[in-house]
Amino acid sequence: xxxTSTADADFEPVKTSPKRSLHNRITLVLLILxxxxxxxxxxxxxxxxxxxxxxxxxxxxxxxxxxKRASKIWQPSAGTTWQIELQDPLANPNLNVSVYxxxxxxxxxxxxxxxxxxxxxxxxYFSAGxxxxxxxxxxxxxxxxxxxxxxxxxxxxxxxxxSKNVRKLMSDRLDLAVRKGCDGVDPDNVDAxxxxxxxxxxxxxxxxxxxxxxxxxxxxxxSIGLKNAGTILPQVERLMQWAVNEQxxxxxxxxxxxxxxxxxxxxxxxxxxxxxxxxxxxxxDKYCKPKGFSTVLKKMDLDEWVFECxxx
Length: 312
What we know:
The chain has about 300 residues and is α/β, with parallel strands linked by helices. The chain has helices at about 5-10, 20-55, 110-115, 165-180, 205-220, 235, 260, 280-285; strands at about 80-85, 100-105, 120-125, 130, 145-150, 155-160, 185-190, 225, 240-245, 265-270, 295, 305-310. The strands form two sheets. It has a nine-stranded mixed beta sheet. The protein has a three-stranded antiparallel beta sheet with strand order 4-6-5, with no helix packed on it.
């Protein structure tokens, strides 16, 4: 045997097991697949992050439904023209005025809708401070909420405006105003403090009650005005969209309501000349004086007749 043969015999290669070789190949394949998966996930994640960043900075233009917002409460401006007709269902819807003040109970939703079609706003009147024995809901008032009669107004008595029963019924009337489509409300007789009411109602009670009515009305997107009650005006004007005043010329109190005009809000002003419906130059000179007020002359029964003070 020569030297070469001896060396070859001493260094004979070790043979690898077929099972171990297969295992190694499987491991390698799995490592490759795992690497590919990790790379793919990284790419996908990058794309998603980029998309989200872009979406956050670019408005969505695919949606056709805008976000619904609460309706804005109607705020008329100082000097707005108007008519008030409370005696019966509205008789004349064709006056060239911007606002109608009509009875909540006497008029239908169809009447209000017809006024809206003529581009008129509608204020719905109801008595918030008196019990009326003819109102549709008169049988729902607790007897212990009823005070003394309103002088000069048969069938009406003062109400305890602190009563939960009274406030619940007034909230129900506001709901009715919404259902009928009123733009605002004219709650009357909130000045019991200035009358012999039989319920010991004071100025502070009126402030609290008018505040309650304002919050309830505006929660329903109804605007609201202060009816007379000039004494409490400083405490509640910020909650009011207008004032309705009767006879400030007659009682020499128009200056109480001038702050409404100064703040761009209307004072819907009524005077009742004894001569109405006959109006003289002297009547106009006397009653149409308040500058900036929306003054009308009416008969005391507040039927359809009206004399509008031009440029008052």
